[in-house]
């Protein structure tokens, strides 16, 4: 009995911030993940509640179950209903210059949350983390952070409510004080247990987790939230980031802060299928925001894993396997129209629609998305505005008394083209 | 961006034939050569000789030998980089241009540097800098001429209220015109207005919202820029 149990445990799926792999090279079991992590399913009543509170249709990622799990979302919504706003916190580890569509997913959703709830947002670029884990130079990680910030801004965040920062640039002051407070509450053994560090890992890695934890606390941003220590934080992220925030939620009450709430997404599948891995070294495993219309067409047609049958006769007879079909999955992410998606699923599943037609529709949708993104990105030039420590003006109405603008020389940061 | 005439006068080559070999000409004495650092790691590099109806394969080290033999020192830089150039940060390649380089007049049209198409070093466009590129210089010369016009127009929608409104109206008109067809009139009759109105909302809403947010962000930035510049003057 014990022997088989141990063997089972070894085959478990692995999900942590640096590694995601399914059992036996199969699919990720999200129900098991929710159980193991201890978060909640995001059910229809919550989605309806969000719709009521924001007076607008819920985002396509909510409707399609892309964002499917949460912690304490109800508490945040309760507070919001009472008139207590919250702020959003999300981030990116700038490990590569090219972003693919999977990278955009949390940012697209965060933009929706910002627009729907009209709340401020902080975005952390963990250039220090990538410098350590990917073993790149400090300068290179900062450069990647700059480049990634442009793509993030292109997702359409409201500059008057958004603060983007890189760790190398911002850590210090009140932020660092919180890091130390958090650090004092987490033993070495605990952090090893959560993140799987070993005796061979360098101390930079071991002391990194507080850096990603403290943006959940408003006092880390005195120029934005001064005097509002009880402001709640909602963190949209992919579910592999959960360990950081489990640790943060454990620590928060001990240092007098609210636990941050989370809203978590599935993993974005690689072109080759759920079992494939999206990897930076294989450009054909994903659609990049720099891909041309031709590239997108080529990649989808050649590499997108199809659930269709191997011959037209079989396909008409048995229909497509929607469970493994990648174009259907991608349409689930990016095709806005529920009715159209339902129609395609039905027809394709019944074998009346062919793979080629589904792929064609997907190519249209993705090309439009990428083109829109590229245009928005072109409008971002090199000036320090999203990243300046300035008071966000809308906060003046809701929070502290008006104060002087706090510009600061800053090494990166972007504003938008002005042709004068 | 160097004007077209410079190609003929200074480098003595035709359009689409930018090549390091052109430096053999006396008229190119004051031209600084910047080569993308990617050349150094390639086994073979291809360049046009002095005409673009053929290409020559040459090893990077042999190219260096040639350049040294005509008294030219190449600078290998990252031509894909896009550094900030501003008050406190002069163009990063400026230091590599020798002091006796000739300064050309600014070309009349303004070219906006937008990421993928322009692979020339961003920065001071007053000194004459010839940048060699990998395999297809001919495409690049043409492309660079065409792109600026459309990308400037695209970006002006975000800064100029007139263009912003024009773009919205263009998109809306396009939908109206495409949806009012004989069939549609027959099908919906007097309700065509409501149907059309819904359709416009559905098809345009996302697009226009995205446009508007970029417009807002741009305006905010310009305002902030104006305010901080005022502050600096007082210091």
UniProtKB/TrEMBL annotation, chain A:
EC number from the UniProt entry: 6.1.1.2
Catalytic activity: tRNA(Trp) + L-tryptophan + ATP = L-tryptophyl-tRNA(Trp) + AMP + diphosphate + H(+)
GO MF: ATP binding; tryptophan-tRNA ligase activity
Entries under CDD domains matching the protein: TrpRS_core
Main location: cytoplasm
Any single Gene Ontology cellular-component annotation: cytoplasm
Keywords assigned by UniProt, alphabetized: Aminoacyl-tRNA synthetase, ATP-binding, Cytoplasm, Ligase, Nucleotide-binding, Protein biosynthesis
ATP-binding is among the record's keywords: yes
Any one Pfam family match given in the protein's UniProt record, by short name: tRNA-synt_1b
InterPro entries (UniProt xref): aa-tRNA-synth_I_CS (IPR001412), aa-tRNA-synth_Ic (IPR002305), Rossmann-like_a/b/a_fold (IPR014729), Trp-tRNA-ligase (IPR002306)
Superkingdom field: Eukaryota
SUPFAM superfamilies referenced in this protein's UniProt entry, alphabetically: Nucleotidylyl transferase (SSF52374)
Protein's cellular compartments: Cytoplasm
GO biological processes: post-embryonic development; reproductive structure development; tryptophanyl-tRNA aminoacylation
UniProt family annotation: Belongs to the class-I aminoacyl-tRNA synthetase family.
UniProt-recorded name of the protein: Tryptophan--tRNA ligase, cytoplasmic
Species classification: Eukaryota, Viridiplantae, Streptophyta, Embryophyta, Tracheophyta
Automatic annotation (TrEMBL), chain B:
The name this protein goes by in its record: YbaK/aminoacyl-tRNA synthetase-associated domain-containing protein
All copies of domain YbaK/aminoacyl-tRNA synthetase-associated, residue ranges: 1-66
GO molecular function ontology, one term from the record: aminoacyl-tRNA deacylase activity
Family: Belongs to the PRORSD1 family.
Taxonomic superkingdom: Eukaryota
Chain spans, region Disordered: 106-156
Pfam families recorded: tRNA_edit
UniProt organism field: Vitis rotundifolia
Stored InterPro entries: ProX/PRXD1 (IPR040285), YbaK/aa-tRNA-synt-asso_dom_sf (IPR036754), YbaK/aa-tRNA-synth-assoc-dom (IPR007214)
